[in-house]
Fold this protein.
Amino acid sequence: MPDSGVGGEGGPALAELQRWLQARVTAGVWDLPEDPADGPLAAEVVAGEVVAGSGALSPRARLAIYAKSYVLRLAECLRAEFPVLAAMIGDEVWGLFAGAYLGARPSRSTTLYDLGAGFADYLAATRPPGAAGPLAALPADLARLERAIAECGRAEGLEGAPPGPPLDAPTLILQPGARLRTPATLQLLELGFDFSEALAAHRAGDHPAPPPPRPTLVAVARRRYAVRAHPLEPWAFAWLRAVQAGADVQGASAAAAQASGRPAGEVLASLLFWLPTAADAGFVAA
Amino acid sequence: MADTYRLGLPDLGDGVGLRDVHFAHLLATPPDQWGVGWFEIISENFIGHHGYAAHVLEVVAAHRPIVMHGVSLSIGSTDPLDRAYLRSLRELAARVRAVWVSDHLCWTGVGGVNTHDLLPMPLTEAALAHVADRVRAVQDWLGRPLVLENPSSYLQFRADQMPEWEFLARLTGLTGCGLLLDVNNVYVSAVNHGFDAAAYIAALPPEAIVQMHLAGASDCGAHLIDTHDHPVAEPVWPLYAQAQGRCAGVSTLLEWDARIPPYEELLAELAKARLARAGAMPQAGAAPAAEAGAIPTPIDHQLSLADA
């Protein structure tokens, strides 16, 4: 390649050079494939024709600094968002998961908060067909929970709202059309495992053990900027889901009764005692 | 002096980056004991954030000036400027009353991809014209001068037609943008590419320098990397004193983004800047050997997942 300026006469366009360098940096494992699909430059040049070498570092070694740090940086960012999963499955398996995901779904966002958005779905979609054991669904489930925790931490919560009076549960339940709202921080998840002990172990600095399979309904919510995952009974989960979808209190109660198979009166009675707790946990607000 | 230097922007004194690990300390400490004149935030950590980090920022911004430092503007990319991102920057700047907004002379990706790295620009006439056009567009969008940092770099292009200092100096002349002189990055790049760091600093237009960065680097044997995980290396301090002497007082920010020490230790390191400005070189060591897995632009630089 000539030594003329990028974009100048005889030189590669800046866009072409950037595509070439990005392909080298994001290759994952350092290699210099001469793949024409990477752009015209890739098939024609080697690193030394684009990158200047000097001192103790060859052009390839200089490119490798960027390639290595690209992989390490994004893998660490992903680990920061999914710390319990990473700890539970160990470094080797975690490295496989993270590397495969980052290779398949390079970041297209200005923020690293979006990096893990598709991780749970990716794990679920790429589960090997033969992996039918009871724990096969665990990584995707735990990733879904940890992603919900991360999203809950950033969403607009109730902390900035002016303090109001405590929820008047009897009035809310008895008054037709009474409504409550769920904050953007609330996330409702249907999981195949109860990760409560794993989360607690990790928070305490202990190794999180894989839990046995057990269908679990979870609300991830934030109160005073602290995010917690709360296992819920089926009626409460169905009630919150209905409120989140826009139902009023009585309508949500009817939906909860139907979904849980409990008598409507029993759900209303449970709601009477549970609403203050739900408000205190950050599930609902007036 | 204040009107002609620093683009008329103030000298905020000495500051540190606002990082998760210090949130609890700052909230528990009276602001008059924070020990810094200002804080720098990583813009992307707070864009669209309504949780604990945003709460801490609101508290801090009520008591100290805030400067926004971004890592995703990608001013040198050939992709179109991201208008949604620029809108978010402008909104955040208004929310925190940012004294100025900075990013890096680099590109982070093309084809819609973001590598989240500060990739080097070819230093050519064509690239200079390209970046200048985009700086003007960003400045029009933000309604304020953009301040650009010299990144540490690990490669140069055969196509380069000028040194980085000339590229930056000419960019300020073409656009009126400011410079964030990262003295550690000058040192790192000087070692990696074999140029004279003092000559680099001497060639920059002092009136355009709005802010300086100090940070620690790591030694990989054949090269240095900008790890922000150690105290400032000894060779950086005379360069910093030289730069400050040319500018007659510019805001200084200590970056520490991995293996972040307790707040008091951070302040002790920052206090060395005052010594250096007074002409007494602080006690410091060489850049230490890189830890396993050490990377440039480490994770704590960009991610804020803390809760209360």
Summary: Chain B has a mean pLDDT of 94. The first helix of chain B runs from residue 23 to 28.
